[in-house]
Amino acid sequence: DTSVWYFTKRRLQTAVDSAARAGAHELDRGGSEEQISAAGAAAAARMGFAPADGANIRIEVREDNSVRAVIRSRAHMYFAKVLRATAPTLSASAAAAAPSAPPPCLTILEPSDAQALNIDKAKIVAPTCRIQVNSTSAEAMKIAGGATVDAAQICVTGNYSGGGTSVPVDIGCAPLSDPLAAWVPPDPGPCEFSPNTIKETTTTLKPGVYCKQIQIDKATVTFLPGIYFLKNGGLKVQGDSVITGKGVGFLLIGDSKIEIEAKSVIDLAAPVDGPMAGFVFAHDRNPKAGLEHKFVAHSDISYEGAVYLPKHYVTYQGHSTSSNIPPFTTYIVGRLKMDGQSELILNNNYAASAVPVAGKIGAGVVLVE
Question: What is this structure's pTM?
Answer without folding.
Answer: 0.74
